[in-house]
Amino acid sequence: MTWNVDPDALRGRVAVVAGATRGAGRGIAAALGEAGATVYCTGRSSRTRSLESDYDRLETIEQTAELVTSLGGHGIPAVTDHLDAEQVTRLADRIRDAHGHIDILVNDIWGAEVLKGGPPDWNKPIWEVDLEKGLRTLRLAIDTHLITSHALLPLLIDRPGGLVVEMTDGTAEYNASRYRISVFYDLAKVAVNRLAFSQGHELAPYQATAVALTPGWLRSEMMLEAYQATEENWRTAKAPLGFAVSESPRYVGRAVAALAADPGRERWNQQSVSSAQLAAEYGFTDIDGSRPDVWGYIQAVEDGNPDANPEDFR
Hints:
alpha/beta
């Protein structure tokens, strides 16, 4: 079955993707652009170099905004440190002056990938983890989302139909019974799932919706670099078997766009879902036409089928 983007599905809607520089944030901004939205792309990584990022990388919010525009939307870069409440308040004032309202808020701020480290750094007890790094992980993963919601939600609740998406790693159901990498990482990802639940409770009287959303194994810029691969040749990369079920950042982006375009999106309020779950519901595909289900594959392996065929989950 062929799926095609509706270039006007979100025409006239205003979105903020907080943490849009790379990875899922860039994929979400791009997918909202595909659907015609105006997208504020925020983050610290800018051509202006006015703020310092936790990553020493080349991606910028200006690149993301240009991608949004090239895909049919209107991308607007907004240099913002989401740990700085004053900067986020200025962002809210800027959007209020320009549009008076936002329809979609995506809290995708993370920035702790370097702090998380690689597999040799995982599964260490709390007393062996660098406390400063652990606490900063929590600040980057949780405080940023709280600060952003505090400043921007007043722009979203002034009319019915607003959507808030909290980006995390793992659904609430999956994370509830599994230890995730470290005490700090585990707490961060569980907390963001719960944040969608809590905000959904507070947003419901305004007919607004909050959803926690997780991608699967994401082929982000950093992940592709780690396996010395590109989006063109990733299938032949020397990577663990599960990488064959990985998804591009656009896939989870299309999940957000599908939610935003659904007039019945309130049925998802307070829920925690994956990109694959929403693809099964709405029918969108990844950029290669497939519908990868990374979490389904992981579950099959954990349930005692180590020889599960990755192709069966695309």
